[in-house]
Amino acid sequence: xxxxxxxxxxxxxxxxxxxxxxxxxxxxxxxxxxxxxxxxxxxxxxxxxxxxxxxxxxxxxxxxxxxxxxxxxxxxxxxxxxxxxxxxxxxxxxxxxxxxxxxxxxxxxxxxxxxxxxxxxxxxxxxxxxxxxxxxxxxxxxxxxxxxxxxxxxxxxxxxxxxxxxxxxxxxxxxxxxxxxxxxxxxxxxxxxxxxxxxxxxxxxxxxxxxxxxxxxxxxxxxxxxxxxxxxxxxxxxxxxxxxxxxxxxxxxxxxxxxxxxxxxxxxxxxxxxxxxxxxxxxxxxxxxxx
Length: 291
Prior knowledge:
This protein is an alpha+beta fold.
């Protein structure tokens, strides 16, 4: 009967080396996989955050400047009605789309309109400063309009017609006869069947890792709407009527070390030390302000 042969020390060492090599490779592959998974997750979250901001801006920018003057002087004077010493905040803005730097933070200001289902029943001439009543087809959105001289500073008291290119101050609403009493800053013509639009405004900016929207119409103050926006840059070309919005977006996780050592593509501004602890991407979208 043959005796069983035991493994020699050399054979055991060879097996141990092979196991170590295979195990090490497996650990390395696992580490690479986990790193890749984190990278994909961070990039996906950053993209989602940027896309959410662009979606917030989409509607106001597509309707920016509709029914109001485009030039600075005409825009500012349009909200100043003779006989009234007060006027809404937007009368100090540089136009329906403008960029203002306040305390080193770029702010985008947009005046836009929300269309209603009402249209002027007949054409009408409005003289400068004089009140005029206009009849409408369709139910008036009286719940969305503030009427009366005491509300002139509130943007909810202002409406516009796309063809007129001038905002109108609402002095009164006659619900039973479906009429609105207007005043305008200068002589203007309201075309028959021109659509009644509500004038609205927002101011947006990025600060301290959040994207803020301030509804100037409601005067509700700034509201953080999207988390993880490190910075935002706005470039408005008034001659071409184009607005470029560039966002610096954070990934989901903050790391103990700096993981972003170089500026991502499309971003030419500074990056804070805090933001470099996140994986960052830059997103850019260009709108044509058609109105």
